[in-house]
Amino acid sequence: MLKLFRDGKIWTIPNLMSFFRLLLVPFIIWAYVGRQDTALTILLLAVSALTDVLDGQIARHFNMVSDLGKALDPVADKLTQVCVVLCLAFSFPMLWILLGLCVLRESTMAILGYITIRKTNKVPGARWFGKVSTVVLYTAALALLVFPKMPEWLTTSLIILCIAAVVMALVLYIRYFTGLWKQAGTAKPAGQE
Q1: At what angle do helices 67-89 and 38-61 cross, to 10 degrees?
Q2: What does the alpha-carbon distance between residue 51 and residue 14 come to, in Å, rounded to a whole number?
Q3: What's the pLDDT score for residue 139?
Q4: Residues 119 and 180 sit within 8 Å (Cβ to Cβ)
Q5: What whole-number distance in Å separates Cα of residue 127 and Cα of residue 71?
Q6: Number of neighbouring beta carbons within 10 Å of residue 189
Q7: Is 137 exposed, middle or buried (0-12, 13-18, 19+ CB in 10 A)?
Q8: Angle 152-186/95-120 helices, nearest 10 degrees?
Q9: Interatomic CA distance for residues 77 and 49, integer angstroms
Q10: CA 60 to CA 64: how far, in whole Å?
């Protein structure tokens, strides 16, 4: 794990934004479960989503991309997603299936990410399919928060869409990581051309 700190970019603005998103998670749970305040929950999720979009843009624009940020950003995303799905699962029981898949995906991703760091000596960044999955989950969660009494067929359709996005991202990430491993295995050491 010390490899995450090798570039010396720890206290950057994007990393602080990711830390902030991690700190928002208990407040999102408190707003939804403790206060039962949907408006506050939506506001906190919007702040989290906005900082998620901005941290990547700031990191790339101001050359603040770091290995820690590549690891921390998805952790903040996934922890937020899991907490939101968990909160909503008490109102929409079909979300327990999605929650189980999210936990499976994140556990698999953590293991594959660790193996990738060990095999390649690099921290892999987020891919487009992970971002699509995140957008689908946030959009569905927002719809369920704003319209909790929508028709059952629409709720079911949204949840199935989320399940498909999570499974798609998991399959494509497995392919991505195993591809990185193959590249690392076939790469010639420096000086052996």
Answers
A1: 160
A2: 8
A3: 92
A4: yes
A5: 13
A6: 6
A7: buried
A8: 10
A9: 9
A10: 6
How is residue 26 written in tokens? 């208990």
DSSP annotation of 32 reads I
pTM for the whole structure: 0.80
Could you identify the residue written with the tokens 């990430």?
Answer: 173
Q: Which residue ranges make up each domain of the chain? A: 2-184
Lookup: tokens for 127: 């891919």
Provide CB contacts within 8 A for 143, sequence distance 6+.
150, 158
- Provide the Cα torsion 89, 94, 97, 99; round to 10°: -20
Q: Write the CA distances from 190 to 128, 182, 183, integer angstroms.
A: 31, 17, 14
Mean pLDDT by 10 residues, the chain (193 residues): 56 89 95 94 93 85 82 87 92 94 91 89 83 90 92 96 96 93 72 46
Find where tokens 């403790």 sit: 34
Instruction: Give, for 133, the enclosing helix (H) or strand (E).
Output: helix 128-146
CATH of 2-184, one of 3.40.605.10, 1.20.120.1760, 1.10.10.10, 3.30.9.10: 1.20.120.1760
Alpha carbon distance 144, 191 (integer Å): 57
